[in-house]
């Protein structure tokens, strides 16, 4: 049961961005560098050369960046203080999160309180009937799993407001005709997505910023990874792996592409596509990277972009591995169903009857002693 629920449906366009925030220390360092350059330039060229003012401008920019970074750090500290103060007011035996958003779990009361902060206050939502088994933090969300009751919660702080999504996995599977038995699901996260897999009951839950998908393994037809709209990797049920995929960093290619081509890529969008056996909801697309409105492409010939690309590819590989294993399990199950021999139990009475017939044929001289023994061995399974 959700208290103080927010029924607004929200959509989030996930965009992996470069980490450009230098922080207070980095801003101060840049200011010092520009100041030193300005002093050196003035001492070596006091003639009033316009170019001599460039380092001085850098000092001004550095000071502004330092002020902004200091203000951000102050706000983060204020939100952390708000979170710590709130935590002292409620009963809980464990927590998970940070100053912006934190889950407070009370296992005895079977309750979780989700708290989002601003610099001046907090907002909370409570969910009853939930006991945490595990929790992870994606790029922008916190996801918690109760594997006993098979419930999942996804939350994000939006300017201090709790944006919440939740699903009862058992109820969703019941709609698909699946009766769940006791098991130990696994919770993993890559990029801004979380994945709950259960090999015993053969289901996977995909937690995205916009929706929580609950699927049977057998619902999945294929998984593909695309760059700029073109397939780089594709694996399907009953089919071979098509294309190549990076493993272990840029340049290590499986599938025929060259390292040189990889090191000179310009990436506008990276996405994973999961194809399902459904006419109403046939495809799930997981965006890994998308260039912003400024058209900032990932250019792998640049060291910083290449490192960012390698990090993203590790996330792609992690997601790919989850679904490659699922597809292999589906293939194996289908193959077993096809080749499993239909064993008809042979009753002791029918064996005795056949042995009697064989003995009569032997006595009648129709079967030799050798032929009789061979046929008897077959009947007895020797």
What are its keywords?
alpha+beta, five-stranded antiparallel sheet, 30% strand
Write the layout of secondary structure elements.
Layout: E1 2-3, H1 23-44, H2 53-87, E2 94-97, E3 101-106, E4 111-117, E5 122-128, E6 134-137, E7 142-146, E8 151-158, E9 161-168, H3 169-175, E10 186-190, E11 193-198, E12 203-207, E13 212-216, E14 220-227, E15 230-236, E16 242-243, E17 245-246, E18 253-254, H4 259-262, E19 266-267, E20 269-276, E21 283-290, E22 298-299, H5 303-339, H6 348-363, H7 369-380
Structural account:
By secondary structure, the protein is an alpha+beta fold. Among the domains are: 216-340, no CATH class; 348-380, no CATH class. Helices cover 35% and strands 30% of the residues. The protein contains 7 helices and 22 strands. The protein has helices spanning 23-44, 53-87, 169-175, 259-262, 303-339, 348-363, 369-380, and strands at residues 2-3, 94-97, 101-106, 111-117, 122-128, 134-137, 142-146, 151-158, 161-168, 186-190, 193-198, 203-207, 212-216, 220-227, 230-236, 242-243, 245-246, 253-254, 266-267, 269-276, 283-290, 298-299. The strands form 6 sheets. Strands 1-5-4-3-2 form a 5-stranded antiparallel beta sheet. A 5-stranded antiparallel beta sheet has the order 16-15-14-20-21, covered by helices on one side. Strands 6-7-8-9 form a 4-stranded antiparallel beta sheet. Strand 20 (269-276) and strand 21 form a beta hairpin. Helix 1 (23-44) packs antiparallel against helix 2 and helix 6 (348-363) runs antiparallel to helix 7 (369-380). The longest helix is centred in the C-terminal third of the chain and has 37 residues, at 303-339. The protein is elongated and about 115 Å long. Residues 1-22 and 246-260 have low confidence and may be disordered.
